[in-house]
Amino acid sequence: MFGNRITLFKLLGFEVRIDASWLLLALLVTWSLAKGVFPGSYKAAESTYWAMGVFGALGLFLSIIFHELCHSLVATRYGIPMKGITLFIFGGVAEMDDEPPSARAEFLMAIAGPLSSLALGLTFHGITYAGRNLGWPGSISTVTSYLGLINFVLAGFNLLPAFPLDGGRVLRSMLWGWKGNLRWATRISSSIGSTFGILLIVMGIFGLFRGNFIGGLWWLMIGLFLRNAAQMSYSQVLARKVLEGETVRRFMVPDPITVSRALTLEEFVNDYVYRYHFKMFPVVSFDRLVGCITVRQAAEVPREEWRDHTVGEIAGACTPDITVGPDEDAVRALAKMSRTTNSRLLVVEGDRLVGIVTLKDMLRFLSLKLELRDMKP
Domain check: are 30 and 120 in the same one? Predict the structure, then answer.
């Protein structure tokens, strides 16, 4: 889902990050508020509108963080490990590695977001009312009034029963509680989410033909995102069910291809990169894993200097994002691949490399299970 992310700060133990796409959204929100929304409701100088636009965008930013933080706090209460909160062009997401343990936990975690936005909306409208009675500048009341309204809109939109929106998760929790079958509940709610995404796409195309380019484009993009997210969420639940109870050891390939620290970069590229077509190789010395080298690291050295530098000189440490234990849950390994976009993980036991697990092998197993319909409900 995400590309380049920047960690901003930690809040109550959760990392708050922004995706590069959020910067585009911040600019668009600031511009639309300064040039379109605020001039229609308050008379002021051009510079005041831009200052109001900045504070309005900042308020929206904090509102989304608060919304996602409430999800995260409830999830933590039920023992669901949270990786943090990431803001991107379509809003925000609280990242978790596992599904809720029960329908009740799902319901409470999902409903916490819209309720928090509703509470913020009421708070901002209360501030607006108090500010007008106390004689605050109209610019402040206009911004707080907008933030009250936008939080009500966030609450209402998220309550739509379209998975993976909060309302879709509420629906899934009810279906899950009714039938006791998470996979079936996810299939139904994600189908509704996918259908709703198609509806938004149609609305967007219709808006484009009617000349509403900005509005139509936004509906089109949100529809495409929602439809893709609904389908991907169902696929993730299927994968978790299929891999449930399996360990990394079952999928790992023992005796993986490794490289020596003594290799020159020229030998590394010609004899390993071009031969095996991997982008990352483990570096081993006397049966111990001592580091990793990537194609990108080699590319940073000028081509004419490859003969003068060895793998050991530029290899880096193997970070937790590319390593996994042999007895670790396969579902968590798959989640790590998804989160880090690494298609290969080094299987490490102590300081020894015992194998490599690849996304391709796990997906092949998943495909066979689905074909044989050998799945738990």
Answer: yes
Which range, of 10-19, 190-199, 335-344, averages the lowest pLDDT?
A: 10-19
Domain of 63?
1-159
- Torsional sign, CA 29, 30, 32, 37: positive
The number of folded domains in the chain is: 3
Please, are residues 114 and 148 in contact by the beta-carbon 8 Å criterion? no
Q: What is the pLDDT of residue 100?
A: 75
Mean pLDDT calculated for residue range 136-164: 87
* Dihedral sign computed on CA atoms, order 239, 243, 247, 248: negative
> How far is Cα 158 from Cα 144, in angstroms, rounded to an integer?
21
DSSP secondary structure string for all residues of 51-62:
HHHHHHHHHHHH
Contact yes or no for 348/318 (Cβ under 8 A): yes
Chain centroid, CA 15 distance in Å: 13
- Pair (91, 177) in one structural domain: no
Tens-digit pLDDT profile for residues 203-255: 888 888 887 776 777 788 888 878 887 877 777 777 777 777 788 888 888 88
- Interacting residues of 105 by C-beta distance below 8 A, sequence separation 6+: 74, 75, 78, 80
pLDDT of 304 over the 50 cut: yes
Dihedral (CA of 105, 108, 110, 113) sign? negative
Closest residue by Cα to residue 73 from 152, 13, 156, 10: 13
Given pLDDT bands bounded at 50, 70 and 90, which one contains residue 264?
very high
Given a cut of 60, whether residue 1 has pLDDT beyond it is no
Residues 124, 256 within the same domain: no
Q: What pLDDT digit, counting tens, does each position of 311-326 carry?
A: 989 888 888 888 888 8
Shared domain check, 150 and 79: yes
Prior bond to 326 cis, omega within 30? no
Structure token digits, residue 345: 């993980």
Indicate if 290 and 358 belong to the same structural domain.
yes
Contacts of 353 (CB under 8 A, 6+ apart): 256, 258, 282, 284, 289, 346, 347
| Among candidate residues 106, 125, 159, the one where a domain is terminated | 159
